[in-house]
Amino acid sequence: MADARTEYADIKKYDTFPKILAYNAAQWPDEVAMREKEFGIWNEYSWADYNRTVKQMALGMHSLGIGRGESVGIIGDNRPEWVCGELASHALGAMIFGIYQDSLNEEVAYLINYAGAKVIIAEDEEQVDKVLEITEQCPCVKHIVYCDPRGMRKYDDPRLMGQEELMRLGEELDQNQPELYTELLNAGSGEDVAILCPTSGTTSNPKLAMLQAGPMLEHCVAYLAEDPKYPSDNYVSVLPLPWIMEQVYAVAQALISRITVNFVEETETLMSDLREVGPTFVLLAPRVWESVAADVKSRMMDASYFKQKMYHIGMKLAWKASIKQQGGQSKLAYWMLFRALKDRLGFTNLRSAATGGAALGPDTFKFFLAMGVPLRQLYGQTEMAGAYTIHKADDVDFDSVGVPFGNAEVRIVNPDENGVGEITARTAGMFLGYYKNEKATEETLEDGWMKTGDAGFFKKENGHLVVIDRISDIATTASGFRFSPQFIENKLKFSPFIAEAVILGHEKPYLSAIICIRFDIVAKWAEQRDISFTNYINLSAQRTIYDMIQKEVEIVNATQPEFQRVRKFLLLYKQLDADDGELTRTRKVRRGVIAEKYGEIIDAVYAGHEKVHIDTVITFQDGAKSRVQTDLRVVDLQPEGGSAQAVEPVLQVAQ
After folding, report:
1. What angle do CA 341, 344, 350 make, to 5 degrees?
2. How far is Cα 75 from Cα 100, in angstroms, rounded to an integer?
3. Which of 88, 312, 347, 360 can bridge 58 by disulfide, Cβ–Cβ 3.0-4.6 Å?
């Protein structure tokens, strides 16, 4: 089952997460299980430390009356305490659900009430405040356990309890009943629902998928057969733990294969912490890969002429080799350019790198393969315990998501003449259904297969699965041409200057785009050209910025068939934001929200207006509000009868 370099736990015998943890602690007590960086210092936690914390937290929650079938919510950044709280809940037979730490109050209240959580484990004062503000709406909450005591002395809510106090209760119970924890572990079963995993919620509030411990572990073993991990491996936990793929990598796979999971100090220190750890494998969301690629290109703007020249020569060599060999490398480009670049990014030791959760544009994919990063595309759903397709190391196809795992079955239902239809699948990790939502379960499951809602097809030449887009998102122009907005958006976002793009054109005569600039890089570009600006709104309204973005759009248009070219675009006065409901917490575009919120802008574009007047109020992260009055310029790339007349944007921002 496993490579000679590792000894995987027997998941038939140890069929729950805390059972595997106890086994690891007994067999390899002093091996490092986790590291966390705090105040610039990496603190290590052995398997024995990990198990001891889980045991004490579990017995502490048992003292509070938490038992089988109940739910526990966890909110905060990725930390060892997050994972320990999860496994402690599993040890009691309780179900956990993660809450994204940047969730708004109403989102937190919705999930807590939906799951009926008695206990909330909160990272720090900020998350405690968020929970306390909505607990009047959530009468189910009886206890709030905080992990970081800083700033908590002034609180006197009787429901509040520090993690240390919880563990003290557990230690006292363990002294009085030393066999209790073992009894609780043995009472657990792989058939227990362990995780209520929130779906992405692209069209509505997220649902909670019920995932059992045993099937999820079995699926993770199948995953490890495709992409092995060993005890000597290092993983850096970056993506939010409520997301299914971080549950797979940082929790389940880590327990099975005994890799070391590293938790960075802050999101802002991610890249420097990556360099310190030198991970052997990483999992990053498409938005992160896009951001890293954009940052590399941005740094080249500040480089000397010689370095810029070497960069372009190296990229040209690498690009040719990558395309010719489907991910092959140019040795000359590697030694000339990419060896130092990989080291700077912390990617030198990578044996495997993955992306999932949304489609990654082929151009971004090629960029990292050319650099020598062994990047693979994953595909799966929360309901299927995460990914179930992957590229083989020697069989990378830029346009596909690879081939199914050995335990997965994938088929195309109701294919058209081109073989395109709905992707349906089933795996060992199949979810039981949606918690308290039988209707949605019945709509999604059919004869043991999950209807993914995605359109795709299998390539005849290599058997790779190609995912086109959500079926609901595939659009048709007024002329009858079908197109995938996501595919074109990903090509646009390969530009270092474009952070987000939303393609319009369903039942319209042509395609248009709403584009959000990547502020930090565009700002640097503008400063180098002595272009004055005050903020995002002002910068995105600059005529010079429009001209620069127009060139980026035209580059993409040149690679597209006529009906898939962007005819018109405008630059939005703000970034798309999950807090405004425009993106999900996993950074997927909510197209319905965009269509409704910016309906007047969209109508004006297709009405042939050369500018769109905006008079609205926006709210910043700190709660401050600002009135925005501006005229957005609509750029027509294919004007009838000549060039489009430029409309100079007029901007007023009143506090």
Report:
1. 80
2. 6
3. 88
pLDDT at 650: 33
| CATH code at 277-428+446-468 | 3.40.50.12780
> How far from chain centre, in Å, is Cα 159?
32
Q: Choose among 475, 426, 424: nearest CA to 453.
A: 424
Write the pLDDT tens digit of every residue in 554-604.
999 998 999 999 999 999 999 998 888 888 877 788 898 999 999 999 999
Supply the DSSP symbol for 149: -
Query: What burial class does residue 69 get, using C-beta atoms within 10 Å of its C-beta: 0-12 exposed, 13-18 middle, 19+ buried?
Result: exposed
Q: List the one residue out of 653, 650, 649, 585 whose CA is nearest residue 618.
A: 653
Closest CA to 271 of 246, 299, 245, 249: 299
Q: Are 377 and 401 in contact (CB under 8 A)?
A: yes
647 band by pLDDT with thresholds 50, 70 and 90:
very low
Which DSSP symbol is given to 15?
-
Rounded to whole angstroms, the Cα distance separating 534 from 274 reads 33
Amino acid at 222: A
Query: What does the radius of gyration of the chain's CA atoms come to, in whole angstroms?
Result: 26
Q: Which CATH number fits domain 475-654: 3.30.300.30, 3.40.50.2000, 3.90.1170.50, 3.30.360.10?
A: 3.30.300.30
Q: What are the pLDDT digits (tens) for 68-127?
A: 999 999 999 999 999 999 999 999 999 999 999 888 888 899 999 999 999 999 999 999
Which pair of tokens denotes residue 572? 């939005």
Q: Name which of 564, 366, 389, 359 is nearest 468 in CA terms.
A: 359
Topology match between the domains 11-189 and 277-428+446-468: yes
Q: According to the model, what pLDDT value does residue 142 have?
A: 95
Q: What pLDDT is stored for residue 648 in this prediction?
A: 37
Are 130 and 105 in contact by the 8 Å Cβ rule? The answer is yes
**Residue 48: helix, strand or coil by DSSP?**
helix
Q: What is d(CA 289, CA 238) in angstroms, rounded to the nearest whole number?
A: 12
3-state SS assignment for residue 208: strand
Residue that the structure tokens 């502020």 belong to: 519
Sequence-ordered strand ranges (E) for 366-497: 375-381, 386-390, 403-404, 409-413, 421-426, 445-446, 449-458, 465-470, 475-476, 482-483
Query: 281-284 and 352-355: which strand pairing?
Result: parallel
What ranges do the domains of the chain cover? 11-189, 277-428+446-468, 475-654
**Which CATH number does the domain 11-189 belong to among 3.40.50.12780, 3.30.1540.10, 3.40.50.620, 3.40.50.720?**
3.40.50.12780
Could you tell me the two tokens for 174? 């363990």
Tokens coding 251: 């929790």
181 within 8 A of 91, measured Cβ to Cβ: yes
Q: Do 45 and 32 form a contact (C-beta atoms < 8 A)?
A: yes
